[in-house]
Design goal:
Layout lengths: L4 H6 L6 H11 L8 E3 L2 E3 L13 E13 L5 E17 L2 E14 L3 E4 L2 E12 L4 E10 L18 E11 L11 E12 L12 E11 L1 H7 L10 E14 L15 E11 L3 E10 L9 E9 H4 L19
Antiparallel strand pairs: 1-2, 3-4, 3-15, 4-5, 5-6, 5-7, 7-8, 8-9, 9-10, 10-11, 11-12, 12-13, 13-14, 14-15
Length: about 325
């Protein structure tokens, strides 16, 4: 249930676009942290986009910081958030998630608030252990006004949005060349629709698309299936990630001296994941692609607890049916 961070920004009025874009970027930290195992391939809980699988997991917390830019190029507010997400499998291929960007605060000016609650239903349509491939889909909702009220210094979004998602992942363990085997790619495509076209103040809520990808190099996989690596590096998965949001329709008119509401925004950057037996640690440097996305490099970090490994016979197993068969990593 990875939030489409600039989906929210795009629905705001132009005069607040810079602050909204950065605050919404922090929202991307919240839902849908999960690790996925297909055959012998571990797809980590990536930070820019969601991974393509379903699991029993608790992400707590996800920390994000980013500095917004003003339209004149000067630094704007400094934004922070602490988010969370809980994912529960219903069957081996179906999971329900609930989460939030959580508590957010900013400096320049000072403001505080709680993010909306987000829910997601995700289904794995197809996966193949031999080719380390997986395709899944999801529908999620961010429930308007379920966070801080509009009277708060940092209010939650007043409008509910519904997002339709498609995910895919492919590991290259079946490649003939050994140097290719540790590589994997994942991707996500989201289409977000607000349930209300405009707000009480007359501002419009945009329809947007969010799309992203990751390129991963698994030292975990290399050590297990290609050749031994030093023990210090055996559980690491470095990656490069990117995510972008483009407003499609119902856009505010452009205002001279402000960021345009039709601008594509996003972040790219390197990341690193440590995959433990029962948890994962992840960190990503978020480089804004333009001034509408942020003023400086931001940071996102998370801790993800694998409930399916911690408590496989209770809260870590599907409500119905047997769990997915897992490869050994």
């Amino acid at each position: 249930m990875k939030a489409s961070f600039l989906t929210r920004a795009s629905s705001r009025a132009p005069r607040t676009y810079a602050l909204a874009a950065c605050a919404a970027l922090l929202a991307g930290a919240s839902p849908a942290q999960a690790h996925t195992i297909v055959g012998d391939r571990v797809f980590p809980a990536t930070l820019a986009i969601d991974d393509p699988g379903v699991n029993d997991e608790l992400n707590l917390p996800t920390f994000t910081t980013m500095t917004a830019a003003n339209p004149d190029g000067s630094p704007g507010s400094i934004n922070y958030s602490l988010g969370w997400e809980y994912s529960k499998t219903i069957t081996a291929n179906l999971a329900l998630s609930v989460g939030s960007e959580g508590y957010s605060w900013q400096r320049r000016p000072n403001a505080y608030g709680w993010g909306n609650i987000e829910t997601q239903l995700k289904y794995v349509m197809w996966q193949d252990a031999k080719s380390e491939s997986i395709v899944s889909t999801a529908v999620s909702a961010e429930w308007g006004n379920s966070g801080s009220p509009q009277s708060a210094s940092l209010p939650s979004d007043p409008v509910t949005t519904v997002t339709f998602k498609l995910f895919a992942g492919k590991g290259f363990g079946d490649a003939s060349a050994d140097w290719l085997k540790p590589f994997a790619i994942t991707g996500e495509y989201d289409f977000t629709v607000p349930t209300r076209s405009s707000n009480a103040d007359g501002s419009l809520n945009a329809t947007t698309v969010t799309y992203g990808a990751t390129l991963q190099y698994s030292l975990l996989y290399m050590n297990a299936h290609v050749r031994e690596v030093p023990e210090l590096f055996r559980r690491l998965i470095p990656a490069f990630e990117a995510v972008f949001t483009t407003p499609l329709s119902n856009l505010e008119p452009s205002v001279p001296g402000e960021f345009g509401t039709n601008v594509t925004t996003g972040v790219v950057g390197p990341s690193l994941y440590y995959v433990g037996n029962n948890f994962q640690l992840g960190v990503m440097a978020q480089i804004p692609i333009n001034s509408a996305s942020g003023a400086h490099v931001g940071v996102m970090a998370s801790v993800d607890f694998y409930l399916d490994d911690i408590a496989p016979n209770s809260i870590g197993k599907p409500l119905f049916g047997a769990p997915q068969a897992r490869g050994r990593y």
